[in-house]
Amino acid sequence: MEKLWAGRTDGNMDKFADEFNSSIGFDKRLYRHDITGSIAHAKMLGRQGIISKEDCELIIEGLSGILKDIEEGTLAIDSTAEDIHMFVEAVLTERIGDAGKRLHTARSRNDQVALDMKMYIREECGEIISLLSELIETTADKAAEYKTAIMPGYTHLQRAQPVNFAHHLLAYCQMLLRDISRFEDTRRRLNVSPIGSCALAGTTYDTDREYEAKLLSFDTIALNSMDGVSDRDFVVEMLADISLVMVHLSRFAEEMILWSSWEFRFVELSDDFTTGSSIMPQKKNPDMAELVRGKTGRVFGDLMGMLTVLKGLPLAYNKDMQEDKEGVFDAIDTVIMCIKIFTGMVGTMKVREDNMLAAAKHGFINATDLADYLVKKGLPFRSAYKISGEIVTWCMDSGHVLENVPLEEYKKYSDLFDEDVYEAVDLKTCVEKRISAGGPGERSIDRQLEHIKDSLMCFK
Q: Cβ atoms within 10 A of the Cβ of 364, count?
């Protein structure tokens, strides 16, 4: 395909350099955004009288036909084209003649590609928000189903205090809600149109950038043309947002892997989201969760790659910025795939309440509640803490748990102990009496579920 920029040079590049320079292999996914942006640009040029009404109509008709043909599969994107912008313009000129050559008036590929990327990322923010909402809803439904399932809560991966399974799941819902808010912020911040900034210094034509921005649903225009073409903050923000989603999914995946192991057996993952071993017939491997955990690293790499590309670039546009695409495309594809997998995995997993409760009963996770029992009877907390620790040590030596320590044994440590101690250390009581806001008590769980429901309504 002939180079549309031939003039200062003859356009004949070394074959290897031409391939090295080309971005059509990956930026072809921007065809719809590129054509939509070009239609808006043509409308602005026609409205301002920069091109004739006839040429404007020819261009819009030609671009609409190209979009239709690509989407119907009757027009293949030429892999020898330098990029998607050149391909669309070349096909347009081939179809409608000289009118097609007028489309690029008052713009540059520099502001054109910035526009395409903003439109693409804006759209993908919406897609990811929708998928995250579905994952949150699925996780919250599972939490509502297991509001009374008691399990050990952990710190340092040691059994710490009793919670319910719902409370644990809803912690991830809160993380994912924050993720959605970050994509909302990114989408709002990037919604500034760069088109009309041209190469870096604007244009001598009497353009109407505000009108063009409005046609493309942007809130405003870039007020500095150099910033308009060189800004890639929105790409970094998108990659950072995705990286945090992957952190949260990876943490959740790690717990899924632990919970589904024979050592825990808190959950059983569906056959749809596990694999078997090629040699060990008893195995059921949580490969989907492990892949989510593993793919987190590649997304981090995409973010670090983009930061490194930008860190030393002088203003304005530099070809280095072509590297903004593959990383963000990869990260978006990866996070979308991982969210979809996770939604299915959470929705189909079986919860083993019996195993959770058994684990909770054998970790002395009600020791803090034993100390609180003494505090409520007037003993200073540090004294109560020491007594509880001594009783736990006695239990470990004698094979008891706090629930079945004889009352006479309790009284050896303090006269404050009475029959009501057994209710105080009952695991169900321990959970339900945690009435502080944000805790695992029933009222708190209901409040969390209501908050999630209300929050998701805002994103729809």
A: 21
Mean pLDDT, residues 390-397 taken together:
95
What is the model's pLDDT at position 277? 79
Among residues 217, 261, 277, 383, which one is catalytic? 277
Residue range 363-450, CATH number:
1.10.40.30
CA distances to 291, 319, 365 from 393, rounded to whole Å, are: 41, 67, 13
Element (H, E) at 268: strand 267-268
Of 3.40.50.620, 3.40.50.720, 3.30.70.1790, 1.20.200.10, the CATH number of 116-195+226-358 is 1.20.200.10
- 0.90 exceeded by the pTM? yes
Residue tagged active-site, from 156, 278, 398, 436: 156
156 has catalytic annotation: yes
* Rg of the chain, C-alpha, whole Å: 30
- Please, which residues have CB within 8 angstroms of residue 99's CB and are 6 or more apart in sequence? 51, 54, 55, 58, 59, 62
In this predicted model, what pLDDT tens digit does every residue of 314-336 receive, in sequence order? 999 999 999 999 999 999 999 99
Is 181 one of the annotated active-site residues of the chain?
Answer: no
